[in-house]
Amino acid sequence: MNQEKYLSKKVQSIKPSGIRKFFDVANMYKDIISLGVGEPDFDTPWNAREAAVKSIRKGFTQYTSNSGLLELRNKIAKYQKVRCGLDYDAQDEILVTVGASEAIDLALRALIDDGDEVIIPDPSYVSYMPCVVMAGGSPVAVKCELKDKFSLTPDNLRKAITPKSKVLILPYPNNPTGAIMTKKQLEEIAPIIIENDLVVISDEIYSELTYGGDHVSIASLEGMQERTILINGFSKAFAMTGWRVGYVCAPKPFTKAIYKIHQYGIMCAPTASQYCALEALSSNLNEDFKDVVEMRNQYDMRRRYLVQELNDMGLETFEPQGAFYVFPRVSSLGMTGEEFASELIEKKRVAVVPGDAFGESGKDFVRISYAYSIESLKKAMTKIREFVELKRIQK
Amino acid sequence: MDKIDKQILDILKNDSRFSAKSIASMIGQTEDVVAQRVADMEESGVLVKYTTVVNSELTGDDYVVALIEVKVTPQSTHGFDNIAREIMAYNEVSSVYLMSGAYDLVVIVEGKSIKNVSSFISEKLSVMDNVISTATHFILKKYKSEGIVLDKENSKKREVMI
Ligand SMILES: Cc1ncc(COP(=O)(O)O)c(C=O)c1O
Asked: Rounded to whole angstroms, how far apart are CA atoms A312 and B20?
């Protein structure tokens, strides 16, 4: 039986993830120093873990309400108020999801009809494109360039808009570039979004990890909250990737539509995980975000170190303002990101991710994650420096 | 000691081979400032010594460590200081701490074999004038030492996702 032929056209059209493919190769080598992982190297704060264990001991082992624990939604509302100045109603405008991942998928499925165009900054996180395709939409990549600090410029946005455009995904702070959108930059694109009647899906999962100043949500701009689906979660800010908790904040009709799909497809986010998230959020709201600040300070130190090292070896590296990635350009060595990454593994046993895994515009770059101890980063930098010097001589 | 000194110490405590230039980039100071701070802290004795952590399980040398609880008679004029100083003078002794609680001093002794350490205790330590009693605990395995995890079995693996 040829099972392949039964697969839907949509699924068949989706290419396997570039990151996955690359690391399947990397895993064949022993003693690799990997800088490939996109999740915090910290553990979930102890008190939050403890709260989850307690909830299990107390026998809270049933489903929660479909929207998630009301207590948790109340805290999310408070958090959005405190951090972004946004008002969301915990009853009708907030939904707890299985990670930001589910939220991205559902937001797209709630909005997209066949043929609707979804504008996606390129390079960006790898899930958007396949999720758009599975929802029946057409992804439209907008090139974001180093010279613009990888921001989404008004000009490039305008060029991408057609009569079929319906949704703009706004993924800042950005994975893989580490770019952010400042308030001023957001103010420049907001009128274009409104003028063209687009809905924004704003993936703010890295909102707590910014290094130059506080994160600004596009929803906080005049006239934008009503057309924004804000997505955030606990994975990055609270080192909670394995718990799978994220959320959506959006005007009631959007939330209701997302709720519908969530209710039938998922039921609710894991109960113990929601208790963990509740404690993480409550304690940080009460104590000036001490866990977040501590992790952010560590990331910041590593970020500065990497930018200095990479520029010092002559790889042009934009100073990222958010997330935990640096995105050096390697084309000055006469190589693409893919060639650089492959040869770096082969010669020096250091794994970084080729930039084109995140879109065509990333092809001259590689992504280096600094969700690693400073010791690992130092070892890796020594090896990358040797490699770069070798390539220079060969060239 | 201000914030900059503390930041520098935190980095060096973890890895004393970071250059002033790297440290400067990490904490957003100039290389000169960092070099000067380090020199000052060396001068004032805050930075005592740059050393290494060796995983002796892997060196192949025979090696045992014992933690010895020691009860002593304090002396009227010098308290515990004199006796502690006498004990620490032995080469076998790597650390001496004054403790609160059921005994007075903890002495950490390193030696080539259990026999070797035992004879130090019976022939040198327990016969000292003010030592009342000792209780010896040999260290069987080190899981974490000086803040470093030595038991790699336990290290977790993060998968590269999509
Ligand atoms: C930009 C971005 N959005 C969403 C996610 C998924 O996060 P979650 O663990 O909340 O599903 C990631 C994870 O790497 C990400 O980088």
From this structure: 14
